[in-house]
């Protein structure tokens, strides 16, 4: 294999059709930000939007902004926009609440549509909040509901006629492994089960085709590859064919057919608004719109191609330059099977990540031993791949990670 040089990567940056997007983001000087898979970078325009929403819409418009600034409709208007990024119809998506809360709502709705069945299939190694949320739901439902945990290669076999719903994450948060949404959904439907997907690590990182795969319900956060800002409200997808059929359990007034009729009893909206529960975080929603608008101007196929190329290069360079340091690749080697991150295992992963931070490379750590390097194609350059590996090699060769203070765990790793 030809040895890649930094000059080769400078050339790739010059030819990159997405290169201009980088200027739309604020990135601190000297920082290589490889953590967009955790929290996306800030679009510059978000700062202006924040001032506008706080100083004009809130300070001056006051409650009138619910109507005049479109606050009330934001979950739906942003849902209509974001739908295009995940292969959904505009009327199938709302932006609201957190991923976990949305998962709770959609899974409860899916189970209620399968009243004879009691089993939910999940990948146990999946992001824990999904397990925790579903465990909470199952405890509340009682009545024999159980979770059948299955790892990636066991999922197909775990789906049988006892299964009410599968609840699966498209791209694995630790390894970046991509599961076959079309095949798993088809298998679920073939036994009469509903398919619920979590798109946290795929929305905005690659083309996703919810309707092409016939998915029933889906959720995704917007603070990673969609650059919506810290804690920005999550996407919730409910296939149109189910509208009017489901009832999610958090039956607040925003999901009522006529919230401002102030009726005594709950009467569900017969469209995706039924998935809303209450007053929405308007400031967060307003900022999320900026990231979504940027993403809508980008070509998702070009994003995917750049992401595969960057992660391939990162793996190649790590193996060439850091190969003697007991590092193992945890992500799939084949780019088609890998999301927009590379995970490397090292026993001392945590202090290594801390030493990388001190050298200006922001990556993160997922216990045990997993160092995650995320490559968000809208603002990461090919030369950043080179420079990050350069610094990793330096940290490993000099043993810089051995400083005692790097062992002290921060609350968020
Ligand atoms: C796959 C997946 N699901 C859910 C979440 C988090 O959910 P929430 O936004 O509710 O905290 C994450 C967070 O990184 C995740 O990776």
What does this structure look like?
The protein has 12 helices and 15 strands. It is an alpha/beta fold and 413 residues long. The strands form 4 sheets. The protein has a 7-stranded mixed beta sheet, sandwiched between helices. Strands 11-12-15-14 form a 4-stranded antiparallel beta sheet. Strand 7, helix 8 (181-190) and strand 8 form a beta-alpha-beta unit. Helix 5 (99-112) crosses helix 6 and helix 10 (300-321) runs parallel beside helix 12 (382-398). The mean pLDDT is 97. Pyridoxal-5'-phosphate is lined by residues 98-100, 127, 129-130, 169, 173, 198, 200-201, 221, 234.
Give a quick precis of the structure.
The protein contains 12 helices and 15 strands. With 413 residues, the chain is α/β, with parallel strands linked by helices. It has 2 domains: 6-30 and 299-407, Alpha-Beta Complex (Aspartate Aminotransferase, domain 1), CATH 3.90.1150; 47-297, 3-Layer(aba) Sandwich (Aspartate Aminotransferase, domain 2).
Q: How are the SSEs ordered, and which strands pair?
A:
Blueprint lengths: L5 H10 L9 E2 L5 E2 L8 E2 H15 L6 H4 L5 H9 L10 E4 L2 H14 L6 E4 L5 H14 L4 E4 L5 H4 L4 E7 L11 H10 L3 E5 L18 E4 L13 E5 L43 H16 L2 H22 L6 E2 L11 E5 L3 H10 L2 E2 L1 E3 L3 E5 L7 H17 L15
Parallel strand pairs: 2-13, 5-6, 5-7, 7-8, 8-9
Antiparallel strand pairs: 1-3, 4-10, 9-10, 11-12, 12-15, 14-15
Helix pairs in contact: 1-12, 2-9, 4-9, 5-6, 10-12
The site of pyridoxal-5'-phosphate (PLP) has 13 residues, from helix 5 and helix 6.
């Amino acid at each position: 294999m030809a040895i890649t040089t930094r000059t080769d990567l400078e050339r790739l940056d010059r030819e990159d059709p997405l290169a201009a997007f980088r200027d739309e983001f604020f990135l601190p000087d000297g920082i290589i930000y490889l953590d967009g898979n955790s929290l996306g970078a800030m679009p510059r325009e978000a700062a202006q939007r924040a001032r506008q929403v706080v100083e004009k819409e809130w300070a001056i418009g006051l409650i009138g902004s619910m109507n005049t600034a479109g606050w009330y409709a934001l979950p739906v208007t942003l849902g209509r926009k974001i739908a295009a990024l995940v292969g959904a119809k505009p009327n199938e998506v709302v932006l609201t609440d957190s991923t976990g809360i949305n998962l709770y709502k959609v899974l409860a709705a899916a189970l209620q549509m399968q009243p004879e069945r009691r089993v939910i299939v999940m990948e146990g190694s999946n992001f824990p909040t999904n397990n925790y949320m579903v465990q909470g739901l199952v405890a509340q439902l009682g009545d024999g509901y159980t979770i059948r945990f299955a790892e990636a290669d066991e999922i197909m076999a775990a789906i049988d006629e006892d299964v009410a719903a599968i609840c699966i994450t498209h791209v694995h948060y630790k390894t970046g492994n991509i599961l076959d949404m079309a095949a798993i959904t088809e298998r679920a439907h073939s036994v009469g089960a509903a398919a619920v997907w979590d798109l946290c690590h795929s929305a905005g990182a690659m083309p996703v085709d919810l309707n092409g795969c016939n998915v029933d319900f889906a959720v995704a956060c917007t603070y990673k590859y969609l650059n919506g800002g810290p804690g920005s409200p999550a996407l919730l997808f409910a296939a149109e064919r189910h509208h009017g059929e489901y009832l999610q359990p958090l039956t607040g007034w925003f999901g009522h057919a006529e919230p401002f009729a102030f009726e005594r009893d709950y009467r569900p909206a017969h469209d995706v608004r039924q998935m809303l529960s209450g007053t929405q975080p308007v400031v967060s929603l307003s900022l999320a719109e900026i990231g979504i608008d940027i993403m809508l101007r980008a070509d998702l196929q070009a994003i995917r191609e750049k992401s595969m190329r960057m992660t391939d290069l990162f793996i190649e360079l790590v193996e060439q330059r850091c190969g003697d340091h007991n590092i193992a690749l945890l992500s799939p080697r084949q780019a088609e099977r890998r999301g927009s991150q590379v995970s490397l295992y090292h026993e001392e992963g945590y202090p290594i990540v801390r030493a990388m931070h001190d050298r200006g490379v922001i990556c993160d750590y997922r216990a045990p031993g997993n160092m995650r390097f995320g490559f968000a194609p809208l603002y990461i350059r090919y030369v950043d791949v080179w420079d990050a590996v350069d610094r990793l090699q330096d940290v490993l060769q000099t043993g810089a990670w051995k400083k005692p203070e790097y062992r002290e765990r921060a609350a968020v790793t």
